[in-house]
Design brief:
Layout (H helix, E strand, L loop, with lengths): L5 E4 L3 H12 L7 E4 L3 H11 L2 E3 L2 H5 L4 E4 L6 H15 L2 E4 L6 H7 L5 E6 L9 E7 L5 H12 L2 E5 L5 H10 L1 H18 L4 H20 L5 H7 L6 H11 L2 H23 L3
Parallel strand pairs: 1-2, 1-4, 2-3, 4-5, 5-6, 7-8
Antiparallel strand pairs: 6-7
Length: 275
């Protein structure tokens, strides 16, 4: 089966991670284009991946079967309007990885009636362990949904949401989530150093413990609460530590944090969507 031509508008880190993942999945590199206004960026992409690179969004879009929007939210309106004529002529599948921009706004800027899938990846995609939620606008068929999912699965987990409003919750959870875990790991490392462990040892033990706990959870069908209970012996050290965290309001703090991030995601989407 003939592979589609996939054009990335924007050659930043996330676009590069997707290009690398797609090539690893067997996509012919001659079917991949990347656009970027910076000559250094274009040369770096060409040298690393051997794909085609250009400064012209319009030139690349004219060969696109799938158009991946990978620019910063602050410039997406201008870029989308620049591409509107070509998109209306070619009718490619448009996949947006632009954070916080609603599909209605993108569709309007692209001229309307676009086969559009909005995605919310997170930064671990840069190391091929991302978590991405996808939302397809009405009218995007099964085959095109599959194409969009295949692109995002090249860098990790990909899950569909049926209502776009859920993307704000996804942003608050997995989009912002890496920062939450970094903060927890930072706190554990500092606590261990305060207890006398050398900093390099505290860091490695913290990171490996986080990796091990996540791997155990991913490979288990059981609830997180069950997994936690298995390492929390009655009267032991873990029970005492967990009691301190729960008494200190850790669960409520995380609930408040995720809610704050969700609300801010809604606010930013409204701002970015203004004409």
């Amino acid at each position: 089966m003939t592979q589609p031509t996939i054009v990335f508008i924007g050659g930043g880190n996330m676009a590069r991670s997707l290009v690398g993942g797609l090539i690893a999945d067997g996509i012919d590199k001659t079917k991949l284009w990347v656009t970027d206004p910076g000559e250094d960026q274009r040369q770096a992409v060409q040298a690393r991946f051997g794909v085609r690179a250009t400064s012209s969004n319009e030139e690349a879009a004219r060969v696109a079967d799938i158009l991946v929007l990978a620019v910063k939210p602050q410039v997406i309106k201008e870029v989308a309007r620049e591409l509107a004529t070509v998109v209306q002529e070619r009718q490619p599948l448009v996949v947006s990885i632009v954070a916080g921009v609603r599909s209605d706004d993108l569709d309007r800027w692209l001229g309307g009636g676009v086969a559009l899938v909005r995605t919310m990846p997170n930064t671990p995609a840069l190391v091929q362990t991302g978590a991405t939620a996808l939302y397809a606008r009405p009218g995007v068929g099964v085959s095109r949904r599959s194409q969009a999912e295949s692109i995002m699965r090249a860098v990790g987990l990909a899950l569909w949401v049926e209502e776009e409003s859920m993307m704000d919750s996804v942003t608050a959870l997995s989009g912002s989530g890496p920062a939450y875990f970094f903060l927890v790991m930072e706190a554990l490392e500092r606590a261990a150093v305060a207890q006398g462990l050398p900093e390099p040892m505290a860091r490695l033990l913290t990171l490996q413990t986080a990796l091990g706990a996540s791997k155990m959870a991913l490979e288990s069908d059981e609830e997180l609460a069950i997994l936690r209970s298995r390492v929390t012996s009655r009267g032991g050290t873990t029970e005492r530590a967990v009691n301190v965290l729960e008494t200190g309001g850790l669960l409520e703090l995380f609930a408040d944090a995720v809610e704050a991030a969700r609300v801010r995601s809604e606010e930013l989407a409204a701002i970015l969507g203004e004409d």
